[in-house]
Amino acid sequence: IAFFCWPLMPAIGYQIKPDGSHPPLTRASPFGSRKNSSILPLDMVEVLSVTVHCTVASRFTHTVMTSTALNKANSSQEIFFEVDLPKTAFITNFSMEIEGQIYVGVVNEKEQAKKQYEKAVSSGRTAGLVKASGRKMEKFSVSVNIAAESNVTFILTYEELLQRKFGKYEILTRINPKQLVENFQIVADIYEPQGIAFVDAHATFLSNELLPLVEKTVTDNKAHISFSPTLDQQRKCPECDGSLINGDFIIKYDVKRASSLGDIQIVNGYFVHFFAPPDLPRIRKNVVFVIDRSGSMAGPKMIQTRVAMESILSDVHPDDYFGIILFDSSIEPWKQSLTKATEENVDEAIKFVRQIYPRGTTNINDSVMKAIHMLQDDRRNKKLPERSVDMIILLTDGMPNEGESNLQRIQQNVCEAIGGNMTLFCLGFGDDVDYSFLDVMAKQNNGVARRIYEASDATLQLQGFYDEVASPLLSAVDLRYPDNAVDSLTPHHFSQLFNGSEIVVAGRLSENDMDNFLVEVLEVTTEYITLHSDSTIHSISTFSPNPSVDLLLTKDRSVKVTLRDSVKFVILLHKVWKMHPYHQDYLGFYTLDSHLLSPSVHGLLGQFYHGIEFEVGDQRPGEVPEKPDATMYVKGHQLNVTRGWQRDFRKDLKRGKNVPCWFIHSNGTGLIDGSAEDYIVSGLFKTV
């Protein structure tokens, strides 16, 4: 992203300076000044105000950072503006106000921006460029020439879709004015239609004296946070000019998650669907840790890896299975197959990782392939639970220089071997690793890559990543939307949903009638396919709730459907004995409030909601003594029926109640209107 703030022709709507010039660019440092390549003292530039105003609506942040600086020198100087912003944020506007005139920046795509930035610098124009800055932040910097005793106001606007991790959203603002500021303020306003579960605000620079200045007001679905210290409150000590304000101001919050399994927000013809079902049981996982022990891992990296692995192994759930593979020029598995995480096995594995010492070169290809084959062999030999997910976590600090060394061939080998049946996570330790290689390989196999920085907290970084993926809740999740209502969608298939995270899908609507906007959420596992949910719908523009259909997933494989807060259905997954000659698993639909439906309701079930007239006679022995046959007289037809029992789950979802019934043969021919083929559709929420 680059910003070009030189004035253009008035016909385009931009103002130009009276002399037609534009402010030149030099390298930037926070609110400093430069003349003839020498840095002038910061006291020649006074920061008059710093204001950060963050507005959050449905996890989407809109942040405006405004700062005014004064050139106190008796000659023109260059004033610099530098901002750290989250890497997941994107700048939507940058402008400067100088001597009453406003210069608006132009935002460009990254690669184009870099070329135009260099061109602008060489021609003396004012430009800014965003560059990486640390683990979570990127740095935007710009400088401008300001006349003596004049001021400049910088206005930077950026937006960000917050990502949920560990059950909360985080708004991070980095502040470092490097001097006392007369008017300093941080304000955040949060609005969440679902309701706000909690809000916490703190800062890395907060002292006991500053802590009470963080004001927080929270209602059901709104929160207001502000922090506005005076000049004296900013001082490091009563007689000091140095400022305490230097660090991160962090707001964390989460939304209320009722029994519904999703929330849809709609505005201006677009929708966004947030999916984070509460109280789902975790899925068992099978994980193989592939650890680089090559010579480049010597020193603190190896020590921190051993400590991290001890902690990670201690946290592996007792129902999970795990394996360990060490690699350098050779491949050394701890065991030839995965092992259940019993206390004895974990203790043995910890003793094993304590003996890891660096040596040799780096063979990434063969080590990852070994992990893949280990999982595949254990699956084939039924050593792993049927309903479980398979994952590989690779940790390396360098480039492959043993065995296969062509990066693209390694990626191809791994992708073909995995075949979409497991997830690969890649951790790149330090600056020497080819992170783009790991990033591509992870994404090709439904995973993510993460850079581990060489620092004293590397152990915590490793543990933190494992904690994110330690508790899968769903695997192979598909979110499906009605074809006749949606024009386009962001990715809506996800390899897994982890505890504390959230799936987000956005799309464009083709019609405004949302009464029949049904969302189908499927989880596909090795054992079965489960219909999980529909969603509660809200309107972003007015934020007035407009629930259409709500589904509640219970732990006994059932879904409770509510239409417009009135009519309720229960959908149960009935499991049939696997050796049965012809019966298969099926979904049972049970209506709880048929009396609330219109008399015009029809369909496979609806045609019976208001009763039918029939008689049963000529009872006679059937093929099974306790199940006699009879003749049913209905709709002008004589049907052969068989007596039986069926469980009614309307009141007791777990056990049901036995009720007598008559089974109609030949797919209900003669009882239902039309034929059975008339009621077959391609999906539960499809009409044709």
Description:
With 688 residues, the protein is mainly beta. Helix 3 packs parallel to helix 8 and helix 5 runs parallel beside helix 6.
Structure summarized in a few sentences:
This protein has 688 residues and is mainly beta. Helices cover 14% and strands 42% of the residues.
Poorly predicted residue ranges = 1-41, 525-556
Helix percentage: 10-25%
Provide the spatial order of strands within the biggest beta sheet.
8-7-11-5-4-13-16-15
Shape: globular
The total count of helices amounts to 8
**Overall pLDDT metric:** 79
**Alpha-carbon distance between the two ends:** 47 Å
Number of DSSP E strands: 41
Largest sheet: 8 strands, mixed
Strand share of the residues? 35-45%
Q: What would you call the structural class? A: mainly beta
The gyration radius over C-alpha positions equals 32 Å
Question: What order do the helices and strands come in, and which of them pair?
Answer:
Blueprint: E1 2-4, E2 33-35, E3 38-40, E4 45-57, E5 60-71, E6 77-86, E7 90-98, E8 101-104, H1 110-122, E9 127-133, E10 137-146, E11 151-161, E12 169-175, E13 183-191, E14 196-203, E15 214-218, E16 222-227, H2 231-234, E17 247-255, E18 263-267, E19 270-275, E20 284-292, H3 300-315, E21 321-327, E22 331-333, E23 339-340, H4 343-353, H5 364-380, E24 388-396, H6 407-418, E25 423-429, H7 435-444, E26 449-452, H8 458-469, E27 472-480, E28 486-489, E29 493-498, E30 503-509, E31 520-524, E32 529-533, E33 536-539, E34 549-554, E35 558-563, E36 567-574, E37 586-591, E38 614-624, E39 627-634, E40 637-648, E41 657-664
Parallel strand pairs: 4-13, 18-33, 20-21, 20-24, 24-25, 25-26
Antiparallel strand pairs: 1-9, 2-3, 4-5, 5-11, 6-10, 7-8, 7-11, 9-10, 12-17, 13-16, 14-17, 15-16, 18-19, 19-30, 21-22, 21-23, 27-29, 27-31, 28-30, 31-32, 34-35, 35-36, 36-37, 38-39, 39-40, 40-41
